[in-house]
Design a protein that fits this description.
The structure is a single chain. With about 375 residues, the protein is mostly helical. It contains twelve helices and six strands. It has a single domain (about 15-355), classed as Glycosyltransferase, CATH 1.50.10.10. Helices cover about 50% and strands about 5% of the residues. The chain has a three-stranded antiparallel beta sheet. A hairpin with a 6-residue loop joins strand 1 and strand 2. Helix 8 (about 215-235) runs parallel beside helix 10 (about 270-290).
């Protein structure tokens, strides 16, 4: 794909970039039909798809809802609602990634006055995830839906699940807080943070080799979870300390705007999807800083979020609105410079926040 040349004289680069990304959504919808896109070849733009969505299905539904919110077209709303409906089988799957699937696939539509069916699915998902919470471990386990050990705590099991759990009555907020803080305690017990841990039969946790420390999305997923936690639980010393440490890793002026994919190899691939997640987290943390009365920190975080989004749209966005240079799995050599559906979603979400289409904490 050709990369777009975005002139600096554009009055509103974010509006133009969002329109481009949503145009890509329409092209993708025509291509994939009832299937779910996962990643696309950077040269041809052709999508690798799944029939059920895997752990990424909610991001496709979320993109369709963003398109519907932007256009107001009844046919776009119908397409988004249909896609969200097709996420229902994930209610019963044993995986913490239900947070990614069933939060990001419903939250953009489930606000008051939004889509009633999406709101009902969100609430059902919250109860289902609460039923999977293991108080003795302090987490909703990673689960066995994708094979491998079930009793894991992984950084990518945090985002989405934290806000989703809070919608479950009868202990949802307690479970959400426990799930978040357990993951923070584990992942941040090492430097760099270790993204995956396995529970031991007689207590305690052991660090997993994969994903390895240095994985690009570790800090990104945790930052997003902490931002959602602080929004829902208010000022909390434990969460605030974690936010400060994670922000120091990724949201400072000295950090690369687009992180290396894995292992810190300067010659290796980067991961634009991690950068897009971090941009959304920065915009959320900026709101929280201003709410706490720290206007200077709020402006700094908002500025960092804008800089990341500008970098993504000027350097890594194709002429057709695809966010390129995402890395699915560097270790396995899988889709290392590709368009990733969650990268597209978080880029679109960040741009939608900047342009006022959505509020930062809608999803």
């Amino acid at each position: 794909m050709r990369r777009a040349n975005h002139p600096t004289q554009w009055a509103s680069w974010a509006d133009r970039a969002l329109a481009s990304v949503l145009g890509r959504v329409s092209a993708t919808a025509s291509e994939v039909g009832p299937r779910f896109p996962v990643y696309a070849d950077p040269d041809t733009g052709v999508w690798r798809t799944t029939s059920r969505g895997s752990w990424t299905g909610g991001f496709w539904a979320g993109l369709l809802w963003l398109r519907a919110l932007s256009s107001g077209a009844p046919e776009h709303r119908a397409a988004a609602a249909d896609c969200t409906r097709r996420l229902r089988p994930w209610l019963t799957q044993d995986t913490a990634t239900r947070g990614l699937v069933l939060w990001y696939g419903t939250a953009p539509a489930a606000a008051p006055g939004g889509d009633a069916a999406a709101a009902r699915l969100r609430d059902e998902a919250a109860r289902a995830c609460l039923a999977s919470y293991a108080p003795d471990l302090g987490v909703v386990p990673w689960g066995d839906a994708f094979g491998g050990p079930r009793l894991l705590a992984r950084a990518d099991g945090v985002p989405g699940l934290v806000p989703l759990l809070t919608y479950a009555t009868g202990g949802g907020r307690t479970a959400a807080y426990g799930h978040l803080t357990r993951h923070l305690d584990l992942c941040l017990s090492e430097d760099p943070p270790r993204p995956a841990w396995q529970a031991q039969p007689h207590g305690g946790w052991t660090g997993c080799a994969e994903p390895a420390p240095g994985w690009s999305r570790t800090a990104a997923w945790l930052l997003l979870g902490v931002a959602d936690g602080l929004h829902r639980f208010g000022e909390d010393d434990r969460l605030r300390a974690a936010a400060g440490r994670l922000a120091a890793l990724r949201l400072t002026s000295g950090a690369r705007l687009v992180p290396l994919a894995e292992g810190g190899d300067p010659g290796g691939p980067v991961d634009t999807s991690a950068a897009a997640i971090e941009a959304v987290a920065a915009l959320k943390l900026a709101v929280l800083a201003r709410r706490a009365g720290d206007r200077r920190e709020g402006e700094r975080l908002a500025g960092q979020g804008r800089r990341i989004l500008r970098e993504l749209t000027t350097v890594h966005l194709s002429a057709t609105g695809a966010l390129l240079d995402g890395c699915y799995d560097a270790g396995r050599g899988l889709a290392t410079r590709h368009e990733l559906i969650w990268g597209d979603f978080f880029l679109a979400w960040g741009l939608a926040v900047l342009t006022g289409l959505v509020a930062p904490f809608t999803a």
